[in-house]
């Protein structure tokens, strides 16, 4: 086998994919012949050596390259806080917050991202969220918004959505994610602009409330379990439905726990 045949065989190895090993072997062989054959072959061998290196590198670098597909980036999922985590950072939603938000949607948008505790009365329930009207109690008394001026859309779990009742009142904690307005027609009111607050990270804190008053008298017109409660510094008598007989407490001041539904204050019991 002459030098030329040996060289071509090594070029074939390189082009068949034995890149580094073939190239190095070819170089070694050529160097050997370069030493053995003398000066007359120097130019030819040098040219062939350069050709082998070029072909070897081309075989390594070409043909196997595949274009890199662009890396798809996805927005990180927003981490939802648990009820306890939200309660640890929440502030009460105030009547000033509600009043200003109803009258100035730009102000309402400054509240986005804040976490609040608030009460609400169920207005309707869709397959994805409950529509409630905010209802709060503070040092000035009770304050609520009508569905014709402001609502809050609460994205609760399905098992909680199906358990809600119209006009049921509950306490919530949630992070405000968006505020917008929409036009809605109401019977006898025409079309009004309704402010809409959206809470996707939301939890029910409680469906029960507590109050203190004097167990005044029975109110048979509302049923055998209904009693009138007189509140301190007020002549107002509230009607409360107790789950058990409470006649032994008549005339006494009591603290009681209760639920609020379309039937009023129900399922009450005395807190010992």
> Number of DSSP helices?
7
H-E string: HHHHEHHEEEEHEEEEEEE
Tell me what the CATH architecture of the largest domain is.
Beta Barrel
The helix-and-strand class reads: alpha+beta
Multimeric status of the protein: single chain
Task: Describe the protein.
28% of the residues lie in helices and 38% in strands. The protein is α+β, with helices and mostly antiparallel strands and 272 residues long. It has 3 domains: 3-61, no CATH class; 83-206, OB fold (Dihydrolipoamide Acetyltransferase, E2P) (Beta Barrel), CATH 2.40.50; 209-270, OB fold (Dihydrolipoamide Acetyltransferase, E2P) (Beta Barrel). The strands form 2 sheets. It has a 5-stranded mixed beta barrel with strand order 2-3-5-7-6. Strands 8-9-10-12-11 form a 5-stranded mixed barrel.
How is this fold's topology laid out?
Layout: H1 3-15, H2 19-37, H3 42-61, H4 83-89, E1 91-92, H5 95-103, H6 105-109, E2 115-125, E3 130-138, E4 141-144, E5 150-154, H7 158-161, E6 169-186, E7 190-206, E8 209-218, E9 226-230, E10 237-242, E11 253-261, E12 264-270
What characteristics describe this protein?
5-stranded mixed barrel; OB fold (Dihydrolipoamide Acetyltransferase, E2P); alpha+beta; 272 residues; elongated; 5-stranded mixed beta barrel; 3 domains; 7 helices
């Amino acid at each position: 086998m002459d030098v030329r045949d040996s060289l071509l065989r090594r070029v074939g190895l390189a082009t068949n994919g034995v890149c580094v090993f073939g190239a190095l072997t070819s170089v070694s062989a050529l160097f050997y012949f370069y030493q053995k054959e003398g000066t007359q072959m120097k130019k030819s061998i040098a040219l062939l050596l350069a050709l082998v290196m070029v072909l070897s590198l081309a075989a390594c670098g070409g043909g196997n390259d595949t274009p890199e597909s662009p890396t798809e980036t996805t927005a990180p999922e927003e981490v939802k806080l648990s009820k306890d985590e939200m309660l640890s950072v929440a502030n009460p939603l105030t009547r000033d917050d509600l009043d200003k938000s109803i009258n100035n949607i730009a102000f309402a948008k400054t509240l986005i991202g804040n976490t609040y505790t608030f009460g609400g009365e169920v207005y309707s329930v869709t397959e994805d969220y409950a529509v409630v009207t905010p209802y709060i109690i503070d040092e000035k008394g009770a304050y609520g918004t009508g569905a014709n001026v402001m609502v809050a859309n609460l994205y609760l779990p399905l098992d909680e959505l199906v358990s809600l009742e119209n006009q049921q009142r509950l306490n919530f904690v949630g992070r405000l994610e968006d505020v917008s307005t929409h036009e809605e027609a109401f019977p006898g009111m025409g079309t009004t602009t309704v402010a809409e607050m959206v809470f996707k990270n939301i939890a029910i804190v409680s469906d029960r409330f507590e109050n203190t008053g004097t167990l005044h008298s029975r109110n048979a017109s509302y049923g055998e379990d209904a009693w009138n409660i007189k509140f301190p510094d007020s002549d107002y008598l509230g009607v409360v439905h107790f789950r058990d007989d409470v006649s032994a407490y008549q005339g006494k001041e009591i603290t009681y726990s209760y639920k609020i539904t379309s039937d009023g204050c129900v399922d009450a019991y005395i807190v010992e």
